[in-house]
Amino acid sequence: MQLRAVIAAYLIAVHALLVVALVKTDLIPRVAIKFGLVKPLIPEEESIIPRLREVHQQMDSSVPAGAIIFLGDSITMALATAAIAPFAVNYGIGWQRSDQLIKSMDIYQSIKRAGRVVITIGTNDVLQGRESGIESRYQAILAKIPSNVAVIMSSVPPIGDIEFGGRKIADTKVRYAVASAKRACEADRRCRFVNAYEALTSNRSPLPGVLLGDGVHLAPKGYELWISAIRRVSTGTQ
After folding, report:
1. pLDDT greater than 90 at residue 81
2. Which residue, among 162, 164, 155, has the nearest Cα to 98 in the 3D structure?
3. If 32 and its partner were Cys, which of 37, 132, 211, 220 is the partner (CB 3.0–4.6 Å)?
4. C-alpha dist (Å) from residue 77 to 56, 69, 102, 183, 202
5. Distance between CA 230 and CA 238 in Å, rounded?
6. What is the residue-wise DSSP string for 108-136?
7. Cα 144 from chain centroid (whole Å)
8. Residue 198 — left, alpha, or beta (φ > 0 → left; ψ -120 to 50 → alpha)?
9. pLDDT tens digits for 137-195?
10. Residue 37: which residues within 8 A CB-CB, separation 6 or more?
């Protein structure tokens, strides 16, 4: 009888752990992805990001001295940088987070001869629930830029009322990233801050027409307002 009780308790414990694994973790989605039943929501780093790093590495030696270099994610990638500076290089990489940008920057030797570096990163940190500690990563990004190179750091823009990866994206998380970028920038004498969030919101809600239907990427109106905000800081009119 005692042996049966031990076996029964063991089976109950195993089933309880299985329930926790299924309900509280991403085990089911990971198994589904593993067997090709569904596609991953977030592409693995070994797909998009390294491929674009290779392209950027091929470009980098040709970047002229004094160029304005833009670093960021897909929001930067879709930015018409020539609307801000005529001699600009766009090194935006879709899906890139702040920690991945730190790694990407090892490729960009042109930063050493840049006229200015413009940074906008953090949206994917927020979307993926990895915004914790982002201020230290902003500091690390700034530290990788030579002290004689001017910097503009733009905050992340707002995110709409959306769910991503089964989680509702709280505006407080976005504002946390904005405040973290502002503190990191203000602590660096070279850095000038652009608050893209404030430029594209009213009462903590995105202005009508500034975001695409996905609630993340900027529509033409959003880019127009963001470009104007960067220009004002770049020319010293703000």
Report:
1. yes
2. 155
3. 37
4. 12, 12, 17, 25, 25
5. 10
6. -GGGGG-SEEEEE--HHHHHTT--TTHHH
7. 17
8. alpha
9. 999 999 999 999 999 999 999 999 999 989 999 999 999 999 999 999 999 999 999 99
10. none
